[in-house]
Specification:
This protein is of the alpha+beta class. The protein has one helix at 76-128; strands spanning 8-16, 21-27, 34-40, 52-57, 67-68. The protein has a five-stranded antiparallel β-sheet, with no helix packed on it.
Length: 156
């Protein structure tokens, strides 16, 4: 699979070693010159096509003119593109995690705010109700007088 816009070209194989590395010539689609360079030949190529292969020429960036095969082997541009894709994926994962943490924090803040509002309303209504004392005082005895104070309601 080639990048959009990269022209497919016919290659003449001059030399091939057992590992699949070849030396090839091709006509440059940009300037028409005959060029020579290394190429990773197709491993399952038929023996009747031992002196021919096909490849693609990078048509963009600083790698313009580099060859690569159908498995994307050979051009530095493909390695750079793979690295950029991996970096973009990691950035996307990091943003998703950060966004998820922020959503959880906002929901927790909203719940705290709702609880605080409800509690404040409850306290406000409780302050408006008359208070009930659970302390019983004997009849005729005032709990608000200080010791030593004589009064008619104090038993002797």
């Amino acid at each position: 699979m080639a990048a959009d816009g990269d022209p497919q070209i016919d290659l003449t194989v001059l030399k091939e070693d057992s590992s699949g590395n070849c030396t090839v010539t091709w006509k440059d689609p940009d300037d028409g010159r005959l060029r020579k360079g290394p190429f990773r030949c197709t491993p399952d190529r038929d023996t009747s096509l031992s002196d021919w292969d096909t490849g693609w020429v990078v048509s963009y960036g600083p790698w313009k003119g580099e060859l690569y095969n159908a498995e994307w082997e050979g051009a530095t541009a493909n390695t750079v593109n793979d690295g950029l894709m991996a970096a973009g994926f990691l950035l996307l994962v990091g943003a998703a995690v950060g966004g998820g943490i922020r959503v959880v924090q906002r929901r927790a803040d909203r719940r705290v705010e709702q609880r605080a509002t409800a509690l404040a309303a409850e306290w406000a209504t409780a302050a408006e109700r008359p208070g009930v004392s659970l302390v019983k005082s004997p009849t005729g005895v005032s709990l608000h007088k200080s010791p030593g104070e004589d009064g008619p309601d104090r038993p002797e």
